[in-house]
Write a structure and sequence with these properties.
two-stranded antiparallel sheet; 145 residues
Length: 145
């Protein structure tokens, strides 16, 4: 194994640990904990709103059936509302419920607190460098797709 491959393996472990530390912490009364994927759907709808299942699937790069399953759970939990599209009544748009908007706001505060803790081990220069490198990698990934 090359030195670069070993570093990539170390990075995979570190990224997995970081992702696990950011998983949704709260459980609403009578409901299960929200998954990272469900959080991604809610965050996407908060940013864009009025999306179709197909739009969600495309933005998250998942299958329509996987998106439908996640959305069904979030609709049953009262986080997402399905409404007839004003542009095309045959189409259904997805939007956040008021409860979901409040919930997201609370969760963003918790997430920000966690991220501040995670990155507190870096000084400002290191953190700026980390952000710049992360953006470079994301731009490269996005350009290839």
């Amino acid at each position: 194994m090359t030195a670069r491959s070993e570093k990539i393996e170390e990075l995979m472990i570190a990224l997995h640990a970081m992702r696990r530390s950011l998983e949704y912490p709260g459980i609403s009364p009578g409901k299960q904990a929200m998954t990272v994927s469900q959080w991604a759907v809610l965050s996407l709808l908060a940013r864009k709103g009025g999306l179709t299942v197909k739009d969600v699937a495309a933005d998250l790069r998942i299958s329509s059936s996987a998106a439908t399953q996640m959305i069904d759970v979030l609709v049953k939990s009262g986080y997402i509302l399905r409404t007839a599209s004003k542009k095309d009544r045959r189409s259904v748009e997805l939007n956040l419920s008021v409860a979901a908007q409040r919930h997201l706001s609370r969760m963003k505060k918790i997430l920000m607190h966690r991220l501040l803790g995670i990155f507190s081990v870096l000084d400002d220069a290191e953190f700026s460098h980390y952000v710049a490198l992360s953006k470079k990698i994301v731009q490269s990934i996005t350009a290839k797709q």
